[in-house]
Write a sequence for this structure.
């Protein structure tokens, strides 16, 4: 059962925004993408790493050393893609392997920014004695976060991954997103290895 936190405003954590996040396009519409023609699957990534794109968020993730990265998976095949065993790592230039944070990790980071995001998959009680997180912040993260549900044939799933980049200067430089463990039926797909430095400020031209 999730802890219900008071509906109070955390400074800089849940500011109103009059912008909206654009609807997801097929994965191949993004400069940073990789397509497997034989498997009929494409994966695109879109880091929200500049102020123009981040303005669509209510939470100022950059202030908390959290990097949101939109993940887009397009299935052009006839079998559903199963993501329950999918593994994602952001591999930095220094070979650090960062895994996407879970919701409780992000909320803990916002409540106590001096604390690093836990790498443990085990849930740790959220702080609720001080620096409460607003309901808007929690709802935004829950709504945005990528969910590992199957990608049905001829469809696209998208959502956001959140990485703790505290202490890492220029985390996208020479970094890449490594994705494995996706299955189509009983067949595991070849891994995807997508550079983070593609110019993702604009969708790719078709």
């Amino acid at each position: 059962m999730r802890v219900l936190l008071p509906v109070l405003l955390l400074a800089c954590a849940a500011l109103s925004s009059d912008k909206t996040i654009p609807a997801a396009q097929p994965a191949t519409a993004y400069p940073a993408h990789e397509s497997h023609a034989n498997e009929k699957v494409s994966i695109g990534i879109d880091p929200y790493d500049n102020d123009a794109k981040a303005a669509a968020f209510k939470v100022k993730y950059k202030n908390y050393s959290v990097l949101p990265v939109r993940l887009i998976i397009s299935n052009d095949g006839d079998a559903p893609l199963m993501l329950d065993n999918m593994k994602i790592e952001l591999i930095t230039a220094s070979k650090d392997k960062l895994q996407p944070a879970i919701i409780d990790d992000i909320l803990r980071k916002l409540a106590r920014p001096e604390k690093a995001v836990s790498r443990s998959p085990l849930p740790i009680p959220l702080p609720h004695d001080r620096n409460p997180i607003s309901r808007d912040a929690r709802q935004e993260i829950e709504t945005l976060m990528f969910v590992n549900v199957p990608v049905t044939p001829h469809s696209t799933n998208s959502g956001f991954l959140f990485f703790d980049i505290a202490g890492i200067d220029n985390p996208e430089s020479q970094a890449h997103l490594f994705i494995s463990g996706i299955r189509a039926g009983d067949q595991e797909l070849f891994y995807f290895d997508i550079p983070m430095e593609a110019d993702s400020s604009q969708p790719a031209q078709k």
Q: What stands out?
A: Residues 135-144 form the longest helix (10 residues). Residues 32-195 form a domain with the Immunoglobulin-like fold (CATH 2.60.40). Residues 1-16, 116-129, 200-206 have pLDDT under 50 and may be disordered. The longest strand covers residues 66-75.
